[in-house]
Amino acid sequence: MMPIWEVFVRAKGGLSHRHVGSVHAADARMAVEGARDVYTRRMEGVSLWVVPSAAITASDPGEAGSLFEPAADKVYRHPTFYKVPDDVKHL
Amino acid sequence: MYTVELSKDNFGAGEAASEAGVDAGRAAAFEARVAADEFIEPKDWMPEAYRKTLIRQISQHAHSEIVGMLPEGNWLTRAPSLRRKAILLAKIQDECGHGLYLYAAAETLGVSREEMTEALHAGRAKYSTIFNYPTLTWADMGAIGWLVDGAAILNQVPLQRTSYGPYARAMVRICKEESFHQRQGFESMMQLAHGTPAQRKMAQDALNRWWWPSLMMFGPPDDNSPNSAQSMRWRIKRDSNDELRQKFIDVTVPQAEILGLTIPDADLKWNAERGSYDYGAIDWEEFYAVVRGEGPVAKDRIKARVDAWEGQAWVREAALAHAAKTTMKAAA
Fold it and tell me: Does residue B320 sit at the A interface (CB-CB below 8 Å)?
C-alpha cells in the first residue's frame, strides 16, 4: 500500500509553507513530483514540502479545552488591555 | 464535475437515532456545532452515520471526477486544433486533480484509497449518471463543459461551506478551477454555433443529447430524495435538488439563446409570476436505469477503470520495491 504524505506549499517567497492536502507515493521524491502535479498546476507555489502523514502527531480535540482555554482569561497579554492617556504618543 | 449523493441502502436516520441514545451528550454537542456553521475536523467526534454518509458522498464525488475523464479522453487525440487539444488536456488533468483532492478528504474519515477504488470497481460505489452517456461528436466536448460543468458549479459552490472541513477545503480548490471548464465549453459551443451549417447542426445535436441528462445531475425530485433532510441539517447538502435544478435552467436558457440554439423542451416557457422558467417532465425512469448501471456505456467506463488499475499495478509495485531497496541501502 502506498504511504500517504502531507503536502505543504509556499505560495511565494517570504510566506510560510501552508498545508494543502495529501498524496500517495512510494518515496519522498515521488511525493514531491506528485504534489507538484496535483497542487501546483496554476502557479500556486514556489516551494513544496512533503511529510509522511504518520510522522505528524496531532493534539487531541478532547483536550482542546485544557490546552487552549487558559489563554482566554489572560487578556493582559494583549497590548490593548492597557489604558494610557490619549495625549501619550509613541507607545 | 459532480455527483449527487445516491444511496444504495437505507441507513442513516435509524442509525443516528440509536446512536443518540448511547451518546446523547456528544451527539447534541455535535449537532449544535454543525447548526452554528462550525467546521468538523477529522479528529473531532462525529456520529457514525455522519461519517458513513460523508464517506459515501465524497467518494462518489471523487469517483465521478475520475470516471469523468473518460468521456473527454475519447476526443483528446481528435481535437480539431492544438489550442483545443491543450485546453482539453488541461481540463482532464484538472478532473484527475479534483478526484485526488476528494479521495484525500475521504481518507481523513478513516477509509483507505484501496477500499474506495475497490468499491468503485466492484460496482458497490456510484458515480454521476452523466458519465454513462457516450461522447459521439466533438461538439460534446463543448456541451459537457458548458452544461455538465455548469451544473457541477451550481452544485459545488454551496459545498464550499459544507460542515466537514477537509471536504469544504477541497471544494474551494475545485470551484476555483471549475469556471475555466465551463467557459472553455461555452466558447467552443459558440464557435460551432456560429460556424458552418454542419457545425451548427452538430452543436444543436449535442445540446439535444446533453440537456436532459444535465438536469438529472441534480438528483431525484425533492419529494423522492429520502436522505435530504438529514444531509441538510448536517450541512453536507445546502440546497435542495429542485432548487438547484431550477437555478440551472434559469441561468442556462438565456445562454442558449445567445448561442442561437434551441433547448429540446417543448414545455419550456418563462413564468413571469414565479420569475423562473417552467419546464417539461423529466424521464426519471431513465435516470434510475442509469443509476442502476444501465447507461449506454456504463460497462465500458468501469472496464476502463479496472483495466487501468490492474494494468498499472506493476508500476505501483516497482515504485514500492524501489523505495524499500533505497531505504535498506541508506540504512546499511
Answer: yes
